[in-house]
TrEMBL record:
This is DegV family protein. NCBIfam families: DegV. The keyword Transmembrane does not apply. GO terms for molecular function: lipid binding. It comes from the Bacteria. Keywords: Lipid-binding. InterPro entries: DegV, DegV_C, DegV_domain_contain. It comes from Candidatus Faeciplasma pullistercoris. The lineage of its organism: Bacteria, Bacillati, Bacillota, Clostridia, Eubacteriales. It holds the Pfam family DegV.
Length: 289
């Protein structure tokens, strides 16, 4: 067993269900969501539906703000004060300065009092990063040391298979986080793009035609059907308020296509939803070693 306690913490973009954070005692660093002059905090005092309502009324996206070095200093101090080591999972450094700030804070605290903090660049977002949080928790529960956990998570992040399909391009076009979407002109609005996370960045994958439901089913089949390289321990079905009935159909399709041990459904938080928009859904899993 490790000599001292290990705490797993993460940025709010990991999009795990709230009950998971509570059950596993995973503290969360919220990203800021700016609605005009009003600063809110992801998962604290704003809902995803409020983000969509703001965009509908104002025609512009809210801004997301990264946690600062001082934010991480305060956060890490709180969770290392009892001598615990911390493994912190950050949003991809390609999307945010959170990881850079977390590393600076971790180094400052280590120099000051020897605090053991491992800030990990997930190279991912949403429940892709959430997968790494759960992996770190499972490894800590199994008695692995903090340095070993950090090494294992840094290896595993390269095996994540993360993608989603969008109902609307407008959020990504306005946000500019995925340059490839600018290639979609007005005459292609009936095409629904698959967005993949590769090398820490969002890229456009396949393009689906037809109703949103048909596009989603085609997308899920395309990601899962006939594959033998998938780690079947766990898969996330993560969405931004897709109707419950359709989510249930997606879960059943996932189970038909691959015998996952665990299928977890999660709702995208404000930070992710403010870039991807409503009715976005993805399947996220690990590939085998």
């Amino acid at each position: 067993m490790p000599e001292h306690k290990i705490k797993i913490t993460c940025d709010s973009i990991c999009d795990l269900p709230q009950e998971v954070y509570r059950e596993y005692d995973i503290p969360v660093m919220p990203l800021g969501i700016v609605l005009g002059d009003d600063l809110r905090f992801d998962g604290v005092n704003i809902s995803t539906l409020e983000v969509f309502d703001y965009v509908d009324k104002n025609g512009v996206l809210p801004k997301t703000t990264a946690a600062s070095v001082s934010d991480y200093l305060e956060f890490f101090k709180k969770h290392t004060s009892d001598g615990s080591a911390v493994i912190h999972i950050n949003i991809s450094s390609e999307f945010s300065s959170c990881h850079s700030s977390a590393c600076i804070a971790a180094e400052q605290l280590h120099e000051k009092d020897g605090s053991e903090i491992y800030a990990i660049d997930s190279r991912n977002l949403s429940s892709g990063a959430g997968h790494l949080v759960l992996l770190a928790h499972e490894l800590a529960a199994g008695g692995m040391s903090a340095p070993e956990i950090a090494d294992a998570v840094n290896e595993a992040k390269n095996r994540l298979d993360v993608s989603f399909v969008l109902q609307t391009l407008s959020y990504l076009q306005k946000g500019g986080r995925c340059p490839g979407v600018v290639a979609f002109g007005a005459n292609l609005l009936k095409l629904r793009p698959e967005i993949e996370v590769k090398d820490g960045k969002m890229t456009v994958g396949k393009k689906y035609r037809g109703s949103m439901e048909k596009s989603i089913f085609d997308y899920v089949r395309g990601r899962l059907e006939g594959r033998t390289d998938i780690d079947l321990h766990r898969i996330f079905v993560t969405h931004s308020y897709v109707p419950d009935e359709l989510v249930s159909k997606v879960v059943e399709l996932v189970k038909e296509l691959q015998p996952f041990e665990q299928v977890m459904v999660s709702t995208a938080g404000c930070a992710i939803s403010s870039h991807c928009g409503p009715n976005c859904i993805g399947v996220l899993f690990f590939r085998k070693k």
